[in-house]
Every structure is written in structure tokens, then in C-alpha cells.
TrEMBL record:
Sequence positions that bind (6S)-NADPHX: 58-62, 124-130, 153, 253, 307, 355, 424
Residues bound to K(+): N59, D120, S156
Domain YjeF C-terminal: 218-480
Protein name: Bifunctional NAD(P)H-hydrate repair enzyme
Pfam name, any one: Carb_kinase
Keywords annotated in UniProt: ATP-binding, Isomerase, Lyase, Metal-binding, Multifunctional enzyme, NAD, NADP, Nucleotide-binding, Potassium
Names of the cofactor(s): K(+); Mg(2+)
Reactions this protein catalyses: (6R)-NADHX = (6S)-NADHX; (6R)-NADPHX = (6S)-NADPHX; (6S)-NADPHX + ADP = AMP + phosphate + NADPH + H(+); (6S)-NADHX + ADP = AMP + phosphate + NADH + H(+)
């Protein structure tokens, strides 16, 4: 599990460690790790041109000490001080002793553009808001320039805690982060600014009683969650997932949701709805029922909503059932807050799976607001509905019912997954995992992980269809289980 902690938690852990460690030790550990990462990126340090963008805080201090280390190895290092009177004094002295120099911020763009390496030490976890005016031309020069951009701790201008990037921010190729991941390094839009994230251990203790703000499952975590059929399992013991989806107008949504469900580990898939013919033609193993959800026969979980149009009665019937339910697409619009909350009060899990537009409609805000503040939006929805919520996107988030605790972020997504019907496949897959007995958060995050991986396998740099993604789920599953 990869965990990310809020700035407040990182600061608390930092204070604890500082009380025990020798003065300045943490910054030296950070600078050593940063310099090593920069050397890796450069390949050859001797003779390289390095420019440091240095702000007023310790983030700039890290950059200056790392710059001193590179200068001692023969790099030509120049520091651009954005707040000349307030740059880290010890770091600046170390850089000068090592032969580095200082250039004025005004007119430093050309120097930034020509550097082999630009180190962004403008601001770190002490930052508020986007880049300030004086830093913007330098960030732009770094982006235009020929060199690699390495951000110190996080790209300057993004919000460490929320993943928001409301103003201008540095676009890094690599971010070297210290002590703990910050949520902004894992959640879009900020994550996109971070590039490849490298972690440097400085001895910070974040485990124990400290709750991560965000956590990302890795292969081994997902492998532990996936159901394994026992020798005596029959199809009913492995769980039956019901899919109430599709309409005369949108039969395809039903076909795709059933396709996802068939590959999610449930023993059987029961389909109810007007698209039975289309479902059977594509997936003859489906148990198709002519009756509504309440009379279709036993299931261990329901998926409701993909392509459902305005069929509120079916959604109502499914929500009344005392088994886990995954609500997607049209179902989200048709499921009343009270009906969903009542399920929570009865102790039955519900997982809602909106994309940003659907989440915005449910929250009564603009889509952009959800997209720019994804963490807050997913927590808010999970709080309002008392249900687990999976917010789809390039960094899919899963919040537990109520919205508290650590939010899961999915690390396997690919932009190619933003294709018609891909969400229907995900809903079927998630429902199948619910039927197999996973909790709502585990089913949602394992489904997102497998779906993202399947999308990557299917895409390999080219566009994919939702069917392609569904077809590669078994390969994703094998890859996870085999590690
Ligand atoms: N955690 C750890 O264990 C360790 C942490 N370490 C390092 O320390 C970093 C945190 O250092 P920090 O606390 O000095 O804050 P930091 O981010 O440098 O900026 C502070 C100053 O910037 C300013 N400012 C604010 N917003 C701004 C903006 N948008 N654009 C421009 N400037 C802005 C604001 O000053 P103001 O001008 O508002 O008075 C504020 O005082 C951390 O990220 C890591 O790199 C490591 O050394 C090892 C151990
Ligand atoms: K930075």
C-alpha cells in the first residue's frame, strides 16, 4: 500500500523526528536524496549546467544544499533567488563554498532555458495558492527549455493536501518527495504536474496512530482482496451478481456491464431488463430473467443503472433489496438520497460510481469544481449519501461511506479508458466483486485497479473500445495474482 499524508500530519512527524535527530540532519538527508536523484537524471554531473529556483523557505534550502553537492561533483550550479533577502542562509553559504553562484531573478529566463537541469525549490509544503507572479516566467522558461525539471518535495504551485492546481504551477519531469507522499502527488490535476515521483526516506515515522489521507493499492494489496474459489465452490457459493441495466434504447450498456460482471469472480450473472436478447447473443452464459429485480431470484449483489434511461421503478426495487448494490450512470440520478441513506441505516453496503459530470449534478455544482477538487467532492458525496463513492477519472478515487478516513486512489488508470461504455464494464466488474463478498470500498478499488490495468494492456498506446477492456480483465487479474 502506498500511503499519502496531509501536511499537518507530515509536520507533526517532522517535529517528533527533529526533537531526536541532530540539528539540520533532516534537511541534509533530503538534500542528499535530492542530489542523488538529480545525478541520476543528469547521467553525467561533471560539466553539466544546473539552475536552482529558490524560494524563501526550507524547500529552497533543500535545493541549495543539493546544488552544493552537485557543484562539488563538477556541475556549474547557479541559483535564482526569488526572495533574495530570505533565501536559506546555510544552504546559500554551502552553495557558494562549493563554487556555485547566484543570478538575479529578473532576466534569468535564458539561463533557465539553457540549463540541463532545473531544480524547483520555489515552495514546498508551506505553499499557499498557485505560483506568485515573479515565479511564473521562470516556470514557463523551465517548461520551454531543453533541461529536465526536478521538483523538490512537490511541484511548486500545486496544493499538497488536495491535489488542486488552481493557479500557475511548475511542470516537473521528476518530483523527489521526502518522508511521506503528499495527496497532491497522487491525485489529479496536481499529479500531472509531478511527473515521475521518487521517494526519499528521511526517517519520518508516519505509521502507527497516524491515518493516511489517501492510500493507493499496489499489486499485492489487490491480490489479497481478489476472491479465490475453494475446491467445493459451486457457482452459487461464488456469488451471483444481478445486473439491472440497459433499455430498448441502450442495450449495449447491459451487454458491457454483463461482460464486466462475468469476469469479476462471481459464479453467475443474472440479468433483468429489456435487453435480454442482446445480452444472450453476446454472453450466452447469462441467466436472463423476464421479471423485475424483486422476483428475479437470489443474488448476492446488484448492479443498477447503466443505460437504464428513466426506469425509476427498477432502481427503487433494487435499492429496497438487502444485498450490496452498485449504482452507476442513470441509476445515480434516479436513486434518491433518502433511499440510499436508508440502506446505510439498515447496514447494507452501497457503492455509487459517478464520473465528474454525474458527481457535479448530484452535488449541484459545476463539473469543473469536481474536476479541480476531486478529493473534497468524493468525501462530500460519500457523506451526503452515507454510501461508498467511487469517483471516476484519470485518478479514480474511492471514499468510504460517510466520507471519512483514508480515500483510495487508483494508480493504474490510463487516459484511453475515457471511452464510451468503459464505465459500464467497470460497474459490472465492481458488482461481481461485491457479490463475491468484498466490502464496497474494496470492491470499488479492486475493480478500478483491474479495469485500469486491463485498459493499459488493451491500449498499449492506441485507442481502445470498452469491449477490448473487458476482454483483457482476465489478463489484468492474472498479472495481479502473479505479482
Ligand atoms: N517535512 C519535513 O520533514 C522536511 C521538510 N523539508 C523541506 O521543507 C519544506 C517546507 O519548508 P517550509 O516550511 O519552510 O515551507 P516552504 O514550502 O519552503 O515555503 C515557505 C514559504 O514560502 C512562501 N510561500 C507561500 N506560498 C507561496 C507561493 N505560492 N509562492 C511562493 N512562495 C510562497 C511563504 O513565505 P511568505 O513569502 O508568504 O512569507 C512561506 O513562508 C518541505 O516542502 C521540504 O522541501 C526538508 O528539508 C526535510 C524535512
Ligand atoms: K518545489
Amino acid at each position: 500500500m502506498r500511503t499519502a499524508y496531509s501536511v499537518e500530519t507530515v509536520r507533526a512527524a517532522e517535529r517528533e523526528l527533529m526533537a531526536r535527530a541532530p540539528e539540520g540532519a533532516l534537511m541534509q538527508r533530503a538534500a542528499a536524496g535530492l542530489a542523488a536523484a538529480c545525478a541520476d537524471v543528469l547521467g553525467r554531473v561533471y560539466g553539466s549546467r544546473v539552475v536552482l529556483l529558490v524560494g524563501s523557505g526550507d524547500n529552497g534550502g533543500d535545493a541549495l544544499y543539493a546544488g552544493a553537492r552537485l557543484a562539488r561533483r563538477g556541475a556549474g550550479v547557479r541559483a535564482v533567488l526569488l526572495a533574495p533577502g530570505r533565501a536559506h542562509a546555510g544552504g546559500l553559504a554551502a552553495l557558494r563554498r562549493a563554487g556555485g553562484s547566484v543570478v538575479a531573478a529578473g532576466g534569468a529566463e535564458a539561463c533557465v532555458e539553457q540549463a540541463d537541469l532545473v531544480v524547483d525549490g520555489i515552495v514546498g509544503i508551506g505553499g499557499k495558492g498557485g505560483l506568485r507572479e515573479e515565479a511564473v516566467p521562470l516556470a514557463e522558461a523551465a517548461r520551454r527549455g531543453r533541461g529536465v525539471v526536478v521538483a523538490v518535495d512537490l511541484p511548486s504551485g500545486v496544493d499538497a493536501d488536495t491535489g488542486e492546481a488552481r493557479g500557475a504551477a511548475v511542470r516537473a519531469d521528476v518530483t523527489v518527495t521526502f518522508g511521506a507522499y503528499k495527496p497532491g502527488l497522487l491525485i489529479d490535476p496536481a499529479r500531472e504536474y509531478a511527473g515521475v515521483v521518487r521517494f526519499v526516506d528521511i526517517g519520518l515515522e508516519t505509521g502507527g496512530a497516524r491515518t493516511p489521507e489517501v492510500e493507493a493499492l499496489q499489486h499485492a494489496d489487490v491480490a489479497r482482496l481478489l476472491p479465490v474459489p475453494a475446491a467445493e465452490s459451486d457457482k452459487y457459493r461464488r456469488g451471483v451478481v444481478g445486473v439491472a441495466a440497459g433499455s430498448a434504447r441502450y442495450p449495449g450498456a447491459a451487454v458491457l456491464a454483463v461482460g464486466g460482471a462475468l469476469r469479476g469472480g462471481a459464479g453467475a450473472v443474472r440479468y433483468v431488463g429489456p435487453a435480454g436478447g442482446a445480452v444472450l447473443a453476446r454472453h450466452p452464459e447469462t441467466l436472463v430473467s423476464e421479471r423485475g429485480p424483486a422476483r428475479a431470484g437470489r443474488v448476492q449483489a446488484w448492479v443498477v443503472g447503466p443505460g437504464a434511461g428513466d426506469d425509476a421503478a427498477t432502481v427503487g426495487e433494487v435499492l429496497a433489496a438487502d444485498v450490496p448494490v452498485l449504482i452507476d450512470a442513470d441509476g445515480l440520478r434516479l436513486a434518491g438520497v433518502e433511499a440510499v441513506r436508508a440502506r446505510g441505516a439498515r447496514g447494507v453496503p452501497t457503492l455509487m460510481t459517478p464520473h465528474a459530470g454525474e458527481a457535479a449534478a448530484l452535488l449541484g455544482v459545476e463539473r469543473e469544481e469536481v474536476e479541480s477538487g476531486r478529493l473534497a467532492a468524493v468525501r462530500e458525496l460519500a457523506g451526503r449519501y452515507g454510501a461508498a463513492v467511487l469517483l471516476k477519472g484519470s485518478t479514480t478515487l474511492v471514499a468510504q461511506a460517510g466520507g471519512g478516513g483514508a480515500v483510495r486512489v487508483n494508480p493504474t488508470g490510463t487516459p484511453w479508458l475515457a471511452t464510451a461504455g468503459s464505465g459500464d464494464v467497470l460497474s459490472g466488474l465492481g458488482g461481481s466483486l461485491l457479490a463475491a463478498g468484498l466490502s464496497a470500498v474494496d470492491a470499488g478499488s479492486a475493480a478500478a485497479y483491474l479495469h485500469g490495468l486491463a485498459g493499459r494492456f488493451a491500449a498499449e498506446g492506441a485507442p481502445v473500445s470498452a469491449e477490448d477492456v473487458a476482454a483483457r480483465i482476465p489478463e489484468a487479474w492474472r498479472s495481479v495474482v502473479r505479482g
